[in-house]
Amino acid sequence: MNAPLNFPLPLVTVDAVLLTLREGKLQVALHRRDKAPEEGKLGLPGGVVHLDKDKSTDDTIRRVLLSKTGFTPRYLEQLQVFSGDQRDERLWSLSIAYLALVPLSDLEAVGEGVFHFYDVDNLPELAFDHSQMVAAAVARVRNKSSYSTLPCALLPEKFTLTQLQQTYEAVLQTKLDKSSFRRKIEALECVIPTDEYQTGVQRPAQLYRFEQVVLFDKVL
Amino acid sequence: MNAPLNFPLPLVTVDAVLLTLREGKLQVALHRRDKAPEEGKLGLPGGVVHLDKDKSTDDTIRRVLLSKTGFTPRYLEQLQVFSGDQRDERLWSLSIAYLALVPLSDLEAVGEGVFHFYDVDNLPELAFDHSQMVAAAVARVRNKSSYSTLPCALLPEKFTLTQLQQTYEAVLQTKLDKSSFRRKIEALECVIPTDEYQTGVQRPAQLYRFEQVVLFDKVL
DNA sequence: GAAATAGTGTCTCTGAGACATTATCAA
DNA sequence: TTGATAATGTCTCAGAGACACTATTTC
Q: Would the pTM of this model clear 0.90, i.e. be above it?
């Protein structure tokens, strides 16, 4: 479809900032580019919009991620458009950056060496304007996490309240008081206790699951 | 630039949701389309990305708005991409919706009849998926206004605290307590008193101005 | 002085933060 | 019993909401 018009169009792509919690920190999953342009550099997974395959760019990002990772991310939202004739020196291009949150287990199931993980606050040089995309994604996550249950998307299906608190602390880069935190979470009714417990060398902890991202009316 | 590729590309456009405060309510500025497609319907001002004129899509929206209104909006931010083969039946298209906030005076200066104003909660049928764009813009403004000085962008350069409060009330659709509101604004140091006063039939009110959008750490 | 609106003061009560205490497991 | 962590309880204080009160203008 789309017969040629009498004026030029930009190349349209999508890129995903895949964030996860790893080693107690917010990290981004990068892969090494195996073809030009910017061959050899680290970059975000992405691809070109195909008008015959995709009903929308949301379809595009899901198709690209499914083909590269085998899964659809727990949480996915449109982030921001990056565009211009500077970002890829060959042509005027436009990329829609997406924010994706996934539990580490999903990424590890993809296979060894496919992704390289970096702390979001300590990035290497990236291809194109991908550093800006990561920065925008991190800012969005940190902001939204202060008034929503977004960080739940970084956890496995079942988790303890201590794990949840540690996730918030990693994302928000701040220590939280246990008692206050539990009061808040309790009041929101955003996580549901399961009938299972995590056992270990200490008192077993109740396992919870969550259903969907909930917005708070106040900051955490 | 951009030589033809061996696969089709979407048409790329931008659209602006121009919001203002009018008759004490949050309203959107629409214009009647004077050419196909959807001729005669009300829609958002927008245009096609020109690779030779625009360094980015942010440039595109500013160029389009400048040509249609003569001004650059007080506040402008990227909202969301709408895309697919359904939104314009002729082709697969992609539009980047922008959120723009302007004082009513700016829009009135454009000239009579160019724009038609509607309450954002009582819209007529719009062209393409422009209703969705307006809904997304309104949701964004209402959300951000609860923790920022965004509504300042809807006011003239100088305003009283009562006007500011009424603006918040219109945007947030809620009554606010005068004393609490002033405490909050005072503590934020987000508006600056001028040495002018608004005179009328009552006690003169201090006029304020604001410099930039400030984020609160708590909701209003 | 009356009317109108600007601007300030005060009381209460909720809820967050800090910290202490109790509970329940393994070794 | 001890060590470790889960889970809950309590005290205090800051701040939001409600509402009353004072101030300054025009007519």
A: yes
- Asked if residues B9 and A11 have their Cβ atoms less than 8 Å apart, the reply is yes
SS3 at position A210 = strand
Size of interface A-B (CB pairs under 8 A): 94
Q: Do A83 and B57 touch (CB under 8 A)?
A: yes
Cα B71 to the chain's mean position, in Å?
Answer: 13
Residues of chain A with pLDDT under 50: none
Q: DSSP code of A214?
A: -
- Strands A42-43 and A46-48 come out as unpaired
Q: Is the CB of B218 under 7 A from strand C?
A: no
Helices (H) and strands (E) in chain A, counts: 5, 9
Query: Can you tell me whether residue A108 is helix, strand or coil?
Result: helix
Quote the radius of gyration of chain A (alpha carbons, Å). Answer: 19
- From residues 123-182 of B, list those within 7 angstroms of strand D by Cβ: 176-180
Q: Report the amino acid identity of residue B142.
A: R
Query: What pLDDT is recorded for position B65?
Result: 97
Our measurement of CA B205 to C1' D24, in angstroms, reads: 10
- Please name the residues in contact with B38: beta carbons below 8 A apart, sequence gap of 6 or more: B127, B128
Q: Please tell me whether any atom of strand D lies within 7 Å of the Cβ of A191.
A: no
Q: Which of A101, A97, A100, A58 minimizes the C-alpha distance to B78?
A: A97
A4:B4 CB<8 A: yes
pLDDT tens profile B56-90: 999 999 999 999 999 999 999 999 999 999 999 88
Instruction: State whether the beta carbon of A201 lies below 7 angstroms from any atom of strand D.
Output: yes
- Nearest to residue B61, comparing CAs of B87, B97, B91? B97
Asked whether residue B201, judged by its CB, lies under 7 Å from any atom of the DNA or RNA strand C, the reply is yes
Helix (H) or strand (E) holding A192: strand A191-198
Q: Which of B52, B56, B86 sits opposite A84 (nearest CB)?
A: B56
Contacts of A81 in chain B (CB under 8 A): 57, 78, 81, 96
